[in-house]
Amino acid sequence: MKRIFTIIVLVTLILELSAQSRQLQVEMTPTVNDAAIWAFADNDGVARTYGVQGFSNGTDGVGVFGNGQTGVFAQGGGFGVFASGTFRAGSFTGNLEYTGMLIGPSSDEKLKTFIKNETSYLSIVNQMSIRKYKYKTNEYPTLNLSERVQHGLVAQELEKIMPELVFQSKTVSMPTEDKSSSDNLEYKSINYLGLLPVAIASIQELSEIVKLQSAEIEKLKEEMLLLKK
């Protein structure tokens, strides 16, 4: 009983010190594969355990923050990282690279309520303007925008044609970053994957047009042969 009381007192003191300092700092001399904080959960038979769990209820809080050559490294047999958010599940500033397949968005019939199809996707595609451009990398350095020449659509222009493919986005300010013009920036983004079905439908329409024109050409050829005879 005395030992339990001692543990409770120690935990209370640690919590009070943590609340006063608002920060826990771990300093160490690193060697190969060292970790400043290492957590391991091995509870057989328990439905869900957490190696590390972070939570922040501040107006601009961060539950878990990683910074370094590799900010956060995650590996799992099922999911390396699982994220859920009411606005966005994830936000990335910079190139997104992967070696496997990009799976999604969800396309199961049971998840959908079907709406009447457009009469002509080809006419919609013909209204789109492909632009050649470069990003303003100097004005927005923390966004890590590509310096290469880009080919694509302008969100404001596409919004007039297919508003369902345009979204309002905003930057996420990292705790260690200096304030810049990129912080708390709102901008428009495009769901380019959503354009794939539109492109497929347009190709199908073009294919039907080619078939009809081919049939008309064959008919004209037959008529020409008859006239020659």
Secondary-structure topology with pairs:
Layout: H1 2-21, H2 121-125, E1 131-133, E2 150-152, H3 155-159, E3 166-170, E4 186-190, H4 195-228
Antiparallel strand pairs: 1-2, 3-4
Helix content: 25-40%
Helical stretch tally: 4
Q: Which outline best applies?
A: elongated
Q: How large is the share of residues in beta strands? A: 5-15%
The chain-level mean pLDDT equals 80
Query: Unreliable stretches, pLDDT < 50, 5 or more residues?
Result: none
Q: Work out the radius of gyration.
A: 28 Å
Count the strands?
A: 4
Order of helices and strands: HHEEHEEH
- Distance between the amino and carboxyl termini: 115 Å
Spatial strand arrangement across the major sheet = 1-2
Q: Which structural class do you get from the secondary structure elements?
A: alpha+beta
Major β-sheet profile? 2 strands, antiparallel
Describe, in plain words, how this protein is organized in 3D:
The chain is of the alpha+beta class. Helices cover 28% and strands 7% of the residues. It has helices at 2-21, 121-125, 155-159, 195-228; strands at 131-133, 150-152, 166-170, 186-190. The strands form two sheets. A two-stranded antiparallel sheet has the order 1-2. Strands 3-4 form a two-stranded antiparallel sheet. It is elongated, with a radius of gyration of 28 Å. The N and C termini lie far apart (115 Å). The relative contact order is 0.08. The mean pLDDT is 80.
